[in-house]
Amino acid sequence: MKRTFLVICIFLLSIAVIPGSAQTAEKTLYERLGGENAIKAVVDQFVANNNADKVIADRWKTEAEREAKEAAKEAAEAALAVKEAAKAVAEAAALSAAAEKEAVAAAAVDIAHLKEYLTELICQATGGPCVYTGKHMDVVHAGLNITEEEFNRVVVNLSNALDKFNVPQKEKGELLAIVGSLKSKIVGL
């Protein structure tokens, strides 16, 4: 009996220290990326990369930014129409500046929400504790007619953001594969 007990104890101890056993399970991608703060830093850089990318920058402008641009254009047209009336021009310029200021503030909020959603999405998709609260990918991208070239630019910009933070190749590849799996829910809708 003692011998059987001893054999079982040795067996259990050996399982506990064998690489690949349940005790030494690999960390989640979320953990290997460095957790939520690391993901937030990558997302910040990723959004900056997309905004600076001449091929896709307009896609990353928020609706508020587009409305601000349109409002500024309309204000400029109105100012030209009443050019001879200096008072009207001054009022239009003041309205345009105020509208642009409000739109920039709204855009900052939209960018903050975009970053929050991206962080949640990556966090959840990589095994982290976050819950993505945004809309489904196909709903968000419906009607945008995003091309494969634009999708590929976004992937390159994410890859560059990961490189900036020296994310190891294995983790980078895993995250890019997750993003790639979303392609059918983003491109051509």
Keywords:
mainly alpha, 189 residues, disordered N terminus, Globin-like, 69% helix
Compact summary:
With 189 residues, the chain is mainly α. It is built from 8 helices and no strands.
Written account of the structure:
The chain is an all-alpha fold and 189 residues long. The chain has one domain (2-185): Globins (Globin-like), CATH 1.10.490.10. Helices cover 69% and strands 0% of the residues. It has helices spanning 2-17, 29-33, 36-52, 63-81, 86-125, 137-141, 148-164, 169-180. Helix 3 crosses helix 5. It is elongated. The model is unreliable at 2-23 and 103-109 (pLDDT under 50).
* Distance, first to last CA: 69 Å
State the CATH class: Mainly Alpha
Structural class: mainly alpha
Query: What would you give as the CATH superfamily?
Result: Globins
Mean pLDDT: 77
CATH names the topology as Globin-like
Q: What is the CA-atom radius of gyration, in angstroms?
A: 26 Å
Draw up the topology in text:
Blueprint: H1 2-17, H2 29-33, H3 36-52, H4 63-81, H5 86-125, H6 137-141, H7 148-164, H8 169-180
Helix pairs in contact: 3-5, 3-7, 4-5, 7-8
